[in-house]
Amino acid sequence: MKPLSLLLIGILSAQFSFAASELFPGTERTPIVTPADRQEILLYIQNTKRDIVEALKESKGKTSDVALKYLTDVVMKTTIKSGKRPDLLMRIILAQALELVNGIPDLKADPSGSTMKYEAALAGSKHVQLKVAMLRQALKLALKYYQSDVDAVLAGNLAHLPFGQLAIDRMGQVLRWWPAIFDTQASFKYISVSLNHIGQIIKRDDELKVPLGEFIIYKDGIEDLEATADKAMSLTSRSNRDAYMRQLRSKVYKLFAQKLKPTIARVKKLKPSW
Questions:
Q1: pLDDT digits (tens, 9 = 90+) for 84-108
Q2: Which residues of 16-47 are buried (b: 16+ CB within 10 A; e: fewer)?
Q3: Which of 9, 70, 131, 201 has its CA 20 to 30 A from that of 36?
């Protein structure tokens, strides 16, 4: 299967591995929180909130390069510290942001997190300010779900966390940021990873994963996109090739937006209480 097909085949497809989960080998997947674990998990949530608030404050006024390194270090530290704790929404948000902007570290080979196992989705983008903005928004989004995580842990059951609402928020992030990624390869990778993230979130909600499973399959228009990509790669003139790649990017965005926006509306319809 061609790379572009893999890119668009669907957010619930197994073609994409959830690389961010590899940050946490042995992660506990059960939704039940035992009384013995409750206090430790609550402490992690509280410490994460403290670190986020401090990071948002301290990153202001710094140059883009310094802010990017500072924010990345904070997100990395927070996700690595999460250990085997269950899939709290705050941790999911930060792990996904790390995969997009920084990449996934190989913690088995290097516990410090400085050796990358998977390259960042935005590795090809030199837009440092955009990466800083993405990380800051991810931190703010994590804060939004602080109380949801606390309430779920106190209740002893994470099965009813608002995964669908988080999926809606992540869809909104993608629609906001993707048009600002001008490097074609980075923009394609950003979409593929982000769609996978959204799919993995939805699959955690038993009420959503079945009715939305067939709805969010991105097969329409793949042949046309592949034909455009093949034509672009066959051209020897750089200007002509770049023109075709711009055309391809426009087609991908049109297909993506036309599918994703109705998905947001459908999730809201299925969960009207949000």
A1: 565 799 999 999 999 999 887 776 7
A2: bebbbbbbbeeebeeeebeeebeeebeebbee
A3: 201
